[in-house]
Design brief:
Length: about 80
């Protein structure tokens, strides 16, 4: 909503505020394709997030396996 207000209040001579407002309105409604660079950025961001989550899961699993190995008694000599 703030983007709409900024677009409406903007007095940039190079870009008509009403055009920017309409563009933002269409993007928000999903009726206009987003910029290809923005789409690619969002895809890469999502991929990086998934990789991070998977890496954290692997680290946690490895840590649990290491903890389980430490809990098992080894050779005991008396």
């Amino acid at each position: 909503m703030n983007d709409f207000l900024e677009a409406a209040k903007s007095r940039d001579k190079d870009d008509d505020s009403s055009d920017r407002y309409e563009k933002l309105k269409k993007e928000d409604a999903g009726t206009q394709d987003e910029d290809l660079a923005r789409k690619r950025f969002e895809e890469l961001k999502e991929e990086a997030k998934q990789e991070y989550v998977e890496e954290q899961k692997r680290k946690e699993k490895k840590k649990q396996e290491d903890d389980e190995e430490d809990d098992e008694p080894g050779f005991v000599t008396y």
